[in-house]
Design goal:
- By secondary structure, the protein is of the alpha/beta class.
- Helix content is 41%, strand content 11%.
- A hairpin with a 7-residue loop joins strand 6 and strand 7.
- The chain is globular and about 60 Å long.
- 39% of the residues are buried.
Length: 423
């Protein structure tokens, strides 16, 4: 490479880094401009949910040293959320007062015990009794105060546990886990078809696709984490099962079309936007923080609908954080994801919204998928628009929206470099 071209290349790389408008990761929020926090987290470490037919570890008493049985949060999971609550206290110090007030925070959980107990553990870390509030020190032998956790039955929950009946989404789910070109490219790949036959034989299941593999692998993963002896057949396919399991959280499966986003993510995003509007308008009775205690799909569906979630497992106690700030008299939305306790949350650049993402623009790009109440019941009716006719991101191509935020700038600059080299 000629010296001149090399210098141009170096300049382009440096300029690309400079164009990264999103600030570096940090644990402390910008509380000077912060007006509203909405956070959705996954419950803490739990015991297995699925017991496949030939599972030699189906005896529930095996889990009694760690939890109350199957599908339950473990001692480790409680500690995870207690620590996370302490983290949130530090992150929003100066925004939240040191004294608990029901006017500042509203917590809602899915109706699953593990989610409710995660929320309770989190609040114990966030709002311990303090001498600043003598009312909080109600028992000198107990450094804990009760914080309200709200919930609704699963059959009515359409935005945390997604248990409310929705016939249309059942149709869409079958399409995108079995019949779509993307699903077929995964399920019918020779190596995966061979794996499925192997799993049907050894695990005892009657059917197999990447969702079944994900469920079985999740059980095996937990058993392995607790040093239980896995059946011999697992060793040769464990890694392959792990790689396929993550596909279940790919947005091309969870929310691959605009219709799927509307049906599945619409009520959750409507909840977030409504609270932003209320806070923007300084409506009385609006909390400063809303916390949703849910599951791996809660955050992955919300982030997937925004086009920022790639193929990864939402780890225990992971969280998507939506902050609304008022900067130079303009309300802006910042979205973060915390999937690793060893590093600060990662901030996304929301596609088609720019950075910072202004609230009005945020509402504009989501307007077509925001549904709730009777409107949601209507779109949930069976026999909606054909998935193939909907605008889709379910092709085999990886979406560029999950690439680092400076990628588009960098590609443009590299293109210019290639043109310059031709000169």
């Amino acid at each position: 490479m000629r010296l001149g071209t090399f210098l141009i290349f170096v300049t382009i790389v440096v300029t690309a880094a400079a164009l990264s408008v999103i600030p570096p990761r940090k644990d402390k929020a910008d509380t000077d401009t912060l007006e509203l926090v909405q956070i959705m987290w996954r419950h803490g470490d739990r015991t297995p949910i699925v017991q496949y037919p030939n599972d030699p570890l189906q005896n529930e008493t095996l889990w009694f040293p760690y939890a109350t049985g199957f599908e339950a949060i473990t001692k480790k999971g409680k500690q995870m959320h207690y620590d996370f609550g302490q983290y949130l206290r530090k992150r929003y110090e100066g925004f939240l007062s040191p004294v608990y007030s029901q006017k500042e925070i509203y917590v809602q959980s899915s109706d699953a015990d593990r989610a409710i107990m995660s929320a309770m553990s989190n609040m114990a870390g966030m709002w311990p009794p303090t001498p600043e509030d003598p009312r909080s020190e109600w028992n000198p032998q107990l450094q804990w105060q009760p914080i309200p956790i709200h919930t609704i039955p699963k059959k009515l929950d359409n935005f945390i546990n997604f248990g409310a009946p929705c016939p249309r989404f059942k149709e869409l789910k079958k399409e995108y886990t079995n019949d779509s070109p993307f699903a077929k490219s995964i399920n019918e790949a020779p190596e995966n078809s061979k794996l499925c036959q192997y799993i049907i034989k050894h695990a005892g299941v009657k059917e197999c696709d990447f969702e079944v593999i994900s469920d079985i692998w999740d059980t095996l993963r937990i058993q392995k984490a607790y040093n239980m002896t896995l059946p011999p057949w697992v060793a040769s396919v464990y890694d392959q099962m792990e790689s396929l399991s993550a596909i279940f959280f790919d947005s091309r499966v969870l929310v691959p079309t605009e219709e799927a986003k509307r049906v599945k993510a619409g009520p959750l995003l409507s909840f977030l936007v409504k609270n932003m509007e209320l806070r923007q308008n300084e409506t009385k009775g609006v909390a400063k923080m809303y916390a949703l205690s849910g599951h791996d799909t809660t955050s992955s569906i919300a982030l997937g609908a925004l086009g920022v979630f790639d193929t990864q497992f939402p780890s225990y106690a992971s969280a998507a954080i939506f902050e609304m700030h008022k900067i130079q008299n303009e309300h802006v939305v910042k979205v973060f994801f915390r999937n690793d306790t060893s590093v600060p949350p990662f901030e996304f650049e929301i596609p088609n919204c720019g950075y910072p993402c202004h609230l009005n623009k945020f509402k504009e790009i989501l307007a077509h998928i925001l549904v709730d109440g009777e409107k949601w019941n209507e779109v949930c009716k069976s026999g909606g628009s054909s998935p193939s006719a909907s605008k889709s991101s379910a092709s085999g191509a990886i979406s560029t929206t999950v690439l680092p935020h400076f990628t588009s700038h960098f590609i443009m600059l590299i293109t210019n470099l290639l043109l310059i080299s031709k000169w």
